[in-house]
Write a structure and sequence with these properties.
With about 210 residues, the protein is of the alpha+beta class. The protein has one helix and nine strands, in the order αβββββββββ.
Length: about 210
C-alpha cells in the first residue's frame, strides 16, 4: 500500500515537471523564432535605408528624410507627427531616385500584438520633386517584414518594439575613407528576453557641408 502511494506521488511529480518543461520549452522556441525573424529584418532595414537620398542633389533632413511618431497606416493612408532631429518615432520615411523617377519609401512599426503587428516596409511609391514632405497625401503600400507575435499578459518581457531616429552627425560608412555623410540613422529594439538591440547606418547620400 505504501509502495503504491509512493509510486503515485512520483508519477504526479514527473507529470508536473513535464508540464512545466513543456510550457517553458515551447515559449523558448517561440522566442527563438521571433528573434531570428527580427535579426533578419534588421539586416534588410540596414540595406533598404541606404537608398535614402540616392540620386537627389543636396539631400537634406526634413525634405528627403523624416521620422514620425504615432504613425499608423489606415488602408493606404499614413498618419502621424514628424519629430525633431534626434527624437524617436515608430516610422521613418525617405525619398530617393534609384530608377530615374523620384520615389518615396519607409519603415513602419505597428505595435499590435499578433494579427497585424510588426515591422513593415512602405512603398516605394511615386512622390513629387524627390521630396517626402508630402508623405501624408501619398498612397502607400505595405509589406510586412517581421511579425510581432502575441504574448501572454504575465510575460511582459517579450513585448518586442522597434523605434527609429536620425541625427545630423558627420560619419563614414564602413570601408569608405574618401568622403563622408552627414546623417546617422538608428533603429532600436529589444529581443524577446529584453536585451537591447540597435542598428546604425551612416547615410552616405546626405553629404557633410
Amino acid at each position: 500500500m505504501v509502495g503504491l502511494l509512493l509510486s503515485m506521488v512520483v508519477a504526479l511529480a514527473m507529470l508536473s515537471m513535464y508540464k512545466v518543461s513543456a510550457r517553458y520549452g515551447g515559449q523558448a522556441g517561440q522566442d527563438a523564432a521571433a528573434d531570428a525573424q527580427l535579426t533578419a529584418a534588421l539586416l534588410r532595414t540596414g540595406l533598404a535605408v541606404q537608398d535614402a537620398g540616392y540620386g537627389i542633389a543636396s539631400a537634406s533632413l526634413g525634405t528627403q528624410l523624416v521620422v514620425l511618431s504615432g504613425a499608423a497606416l489606415n488602408g493606404r493612408a499614413l498618419s502621424g507627427s514628424t519629430v525633431a532631429t534626434g527624437s524617436s518615432g515608430n516610422a521613418v520615411l525617405w525619398a530617393m531616385n534609384t530608377t530615374g523617377t523620384a520615389q518615396c519609401a519607409g519603415l513602419l512599426f505597428k505595435a499590435t500584438n499578433g494579427g497585424g503587428g510588426g515591422l513593415y516596409f512602405l512603398g516605394p511609391v511615386a512622390c513629387s520633386a524627390g521630396s517626402v514632405s508630402d508623405w501624408s497625401s501619398l498612397s502607400w503600400t505595405a509589406t510586412r517584414w517581421a511579425d510581432r507575435p502575441a504574448y501572454q499578459a504575465s510575460n511582459t518581457y517579450n513585448q518586442t518594439a522597434i523605434s527609429f531616429s536620425v541625427a545630423s552627425t558627420a560619419c563614414k560608412p564602413f570601408g569608405v575613407t574618401a568622403s563622408s555623410g552627414n546623417v546617422v540613422w538608428t533603429l532600436a529594439s529589444t529581443n524577446r528576453s529584453g536585451a537591447p538591440l540597435a542598428e546604425q547606418q551612416c547615410l552616405f547620400n546626405f553629404k557633410a557641408p
